[in-house]
């Protein structure tokens, strides 16, 4: 009798545990449900009904834009990409979702307010994409605490202030996009500490100063866009020695001096140095490995003749040498130039050639 009673009790315990297990692995914590409700209350989206699926207490079950970890049932991903108008602001309650690895709230055109400072306390965050909104204020000064971050995209907002020096501590960062804001001040001198960076897009801001030497230490950097800023000084020769750099855009700055021969003798396929105050001659540094999808040197103070080595290039898809001081001579002949318009001799408005 005693043995049967023990067996019955054990069976009851097992049944109870089995009954509880589904509840423990399929329902998100009540604290995270509450955090998402506060997050939702701060946003208004009346057209597409993005939040209509946010019903019930289980935020891991068919809530649009919400992904949970399959094991812990903690909220791991918020993805709300726009199309129509969403207004409001990003509530600090998002910081209560401590297991977040990805936040994408982009292209809504109407979300304003600041980036919640507490967002830097999310230790697992790998992706932060708030692009295409009306967010203002500054980048959190301690952004460098997000050491797991691989992508930081704050493009197309109204962000001001300086790039925080702590940003150079984002040792896993691969993509940095701060385009089309009102960011001021210099590029951090130690930006080269971002060894994994492959894209640095800082165009259309109010950035001043020189191009930091430390950028040359980012081996895998393939795309560098510093256009439409207020950078000064000369173009560093080391830019042409970067092994992976394929696209260099420095147009619309206040850069002076000569074009380094290393830049035009490199293997970059997109080079835009237009609308600066560059002077001197176009370097005679082209070669058989030169393959330019686009090369724009227009609106500078360049002079002299088209370099003879340009005849060696493998391909030039778009070439603009217009609006310089005085560029003379004939364009080289060959397959690489057959689709380009000829260069008119010694005219300030001449020299534009394109596919």
UniProtKB/TrEMBL annotation:
<dbReference type="InterPro" id="IPR001611">
    <property type="entry name" value="Leu-rich_rpt"/>
</dbReference>
<dbReference type="InterPro" id="IPR032675">
    <property type="entry name" value="LRR_dom_sf"/>
</dbReference>
<dbReference type="Pfam" id="PF08263">
    <property type="entry name" value="LRRNT_2"/>
</dbReference>
<dbReference type="GO" id="GO:0005886">
    <property type="term" value="C:plasma membrane"/>
</dbReference>
<feature type="signal peptide">
    <location>
        <begin position="1"/>
        <end position="27"/>
    </location>
</feature>
<dbReference type="InterPro" id="IPR013210">
    <property type="entry name" value="LRR_N_plant-typ"/>
</dbReference>
<keyword id="KW-1133">Transmembrane helix</keyword>
<protein>
    <recommendedName>
        <fullName>Leucine-rich repeat-containing N-terminal plant-type domain-containing protein</fullName>
    </recommendedName>
</protein>
<keyword id="KW-0677">Repeat</keyword>
<keyword id="KW-0325">Glycoprotein</keyword>
<keyword id="KW-0472">Membrane</keyword>
<dbReference type="Pfam" id="PF00560">
    <property type="entry name" value="LRR_1"/>
</dbReference>
<keyword id="KW-0732">Signal</keyword>
<keyword id="KW-0433">Leucine-rich repeat</keyword>
<keyword id="KW-0675">Receptor</keyword>
<dbReference type="Pfam" id="PF13855">
    <property type="entry name" value="LRR_8"/>
</dbReference>
<feature type="domain" description="Leucine-rich repeat-containing N-terminal plant-type">
    <location>
        <begin position="31"/>
        <end position="69"/>
    </location>
</feature>
<keyword id="KW-0812">Transmembrane</keyword>
């Amino acid at each position: 009798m005693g043995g049967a009673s023990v067996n019955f009790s054990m069976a009851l315990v097992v049944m109870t545990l089995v009954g509880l297990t589904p509840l423990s692995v399929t329902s998100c914590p009540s604290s995270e449900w509450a955090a998402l409700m506060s997050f939702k209350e701060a946003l208004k989206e009346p057209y597409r009904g993005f939040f209509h699926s946010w019903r019930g207490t289980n935020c891991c079950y068919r809530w649009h834009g919400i992904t949970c970890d399959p094991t812990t049932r903690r909220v791991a991903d918020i993805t709300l990409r726009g199309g129509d108008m969403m207004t409001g602001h990003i509530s600090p309650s998002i910081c209560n979702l401590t297991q977040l690895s990805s936040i994408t709230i982009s292209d809504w055109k109407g979300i304003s307010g600041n980036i919640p400072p507490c967002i830097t306390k999310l230790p697992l965050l790998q992706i932060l994409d708030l692009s295409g909104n009306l967010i203002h204020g500054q980048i959190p000064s301690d952004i460098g605490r997000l050491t797991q971050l691989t992508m930081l995209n704050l493009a197309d907002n109204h962000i001001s202030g300086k790039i925080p020096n702590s940003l150079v501590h984002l040792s896993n960062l691969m993509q940095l996009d701060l385009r089309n804001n009102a960011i001021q001040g210099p590029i951090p001198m130690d930006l080269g500490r971002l060894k994994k960076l492959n894209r640095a897009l800082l165009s259309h801001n109010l950035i001043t100063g020189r191009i930091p030497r430390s950028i040359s230490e980012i081996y895998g950097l393939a795309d560098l866009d510093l256009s439409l800023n207020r950078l000064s000084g000369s173009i560093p020769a080391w830019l042409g020695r970067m092994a992976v750099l394929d696209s260099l855009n420095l147009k619309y700055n206040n850069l002076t001096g000569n074009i380094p021969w290393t830049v035009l003798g490199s293997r970059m396929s997109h080079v835009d140095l237009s609308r600066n105050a560059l002077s001197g001659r176009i370097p005679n540094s082209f070669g058989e490995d030169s393959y330019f999808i686009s090369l724009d040197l227009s609106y500078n103070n360049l002079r002299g003749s088209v370099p003879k080595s340009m005849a060696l290039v493998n391909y030039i898809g778009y070439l603009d040498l217009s609006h310089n001081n005085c560029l003379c001579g004939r364009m080289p002949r060959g397959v690489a130039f057959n689709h380009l318009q000829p260069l008119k001799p010694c005219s300030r408005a001449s020299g534009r050639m394109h596919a």
